[in-house]
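WARN no homologs supplied; continuing
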Amino acid sequence: MSYRHWLTMSACTLLAACGGSSSDPAPTPQPTETGTLSLAVSDAPMSGVTAVGLHLHELVMTDSNGVEHRYSLGDMTMNLLDYPGKLSHTVVDNMTLPVGSYHNVYMTVVQGDGNNGCYVEDGQGRHALQVQDGQLPLMDFSVASGQHYGYTMEVDLYLGLQHDNQYDYSLNHDGMWAVNNMSMGHLLGEMDPQWVAQCEADNAALAPVGSVFTHLAYLYPASVTSMSQMADVSATPAAGSTAPIAVAPLRQDDQGYWYFGMGFLPAGTYRVGYSCLGHLDDPQVDDTTNGSFSMYADAGSVTIDAGTTGGTETVHRCGMGNGGHHGG
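OK structure emitted
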């Protein structure tokens, strides 16, 4: 059974006694216990694209009785690149939901055809974007009476966005995760400028056209304890290595200092790696084993603390850092 909550629907059965009536007062209907839900979307941007447009259609979830509920998102559109790091775009704000548990939760999208729906813009123009299964998967959750719940979906474009030789783009689920806003934090990294300069010098023979290197920060689970275990973005990393769980580009502030940001990370301990060879990291290939990509530096362990209400920002110094410059 499916309910579309943007339509007014009811199915009522009226039972009447035959041959008489009762003077007993009709029972007072008990109000349905409810809680509220908010959803937002954020992204980790990538170089080479100037816009990633999402066209959202419905929020879908199934309750514990197996009933599917669909809520219209009003054909909302957004450019993911407008919401990097700890910025996010509100999709649902304080939606009222009946108390209970919900699973198989996702947002549907309007697939791109080049003119309408999801799209990517790059140096070659605007292109259709196809999202895996036509949906953005969210986490299961439960609603208690009178409580509010907030979740954010992070879309890591370096992990999930791919294109072929015809510049047809696809966005897969590998680069997406949802997090409870009460149990997540943000990472702000200060990058050692000597690492940046030395990485470029040591890899001069691998410089791309125009000699503009792609500097990336890679985030790994705590099980990674050395640079030798840090794989590039790949669905099939080499034995003994681990693929990153998040990737973010390094940026320079107005004074030339390098930094990076990663938003909406589940609280916990991670490890950071750095390379200037991001232009050689094809997400469809193990470029560490079969290509020229290599990690340049192990930036050490970092613990993301959510704080008491979620959303605490942790500053991490990579190498000698950059003197406390965080962009701006």
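The mean pLDDT is 90.
OK
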